[in-house]
Amino acid sequence: MLVRILLYIKHHLPFLWQMVEWLNAFMFRLLHDKKFQRVAATVISGHQLQGFEFRQITAKDLPALAKLLADQPKERVAFFKPRNFDSKALEKIFKTLRLS
Q1: Under the phi-then-psi rule, with left for phi > 0, alpha for psi from -120 to 50, and beta for the rest, what region is 38?
Q2: pTM over 0.85
Q3: Looking at the predicted structure, is the pLDDT value of residue 13 above 90?
Q4: Domain limits of the chain?
Q5: What are phi and psi for residue 93, nearest 5 degrees?
Q6: What is the pLDDT of residues 29-84, one digit of tens each?
Q7: Helix (H/G/I), strand (E/B), else coil: 67
Q8: Alpha-carbon Rg of the chain, whole angstroms?
Q9: What is the largest CA-CA distance in the chain?
Q10: Where are the alpha helices (DSSP H) in 1-100?
Q11: Which of 1, 22, 62, 85 lies at a CB distance of 3.0 to 4.6 Å from 69, suitable for a disulfide?
């Protein structure tokens, strides 16, 4: 029942859906940001591979990420389409989550 309500809001009331997404991002940051940052730092520092750099994504990486996702074969992303992953959508996600 809740899923049907949320899908209705997403497809028929986009302004309300944007508020839901913002609230979700805010609550995630509030509840999990410090732990997420600690875990991310631990994971990044624990991985090394010659010729590669492991780091947190930045806004400058978004065009390359959009291209990587767009270039995936259709069968690879058949069950992973919660949203568009073009540059504009990725910038919106990045801005909403305030990643740096």
Answers
A1: alpha
A2: no
A3: yes
A4: 16-97
A5: -60, -45
A6: 899 989 988 999 999 998 889 999 899 888 899 999 999 988 888 887 777 666 67
A7: helix
A8: 16
A9: 50
A10: 2-12, 14-45, 62-70, 87-97
A11: 85
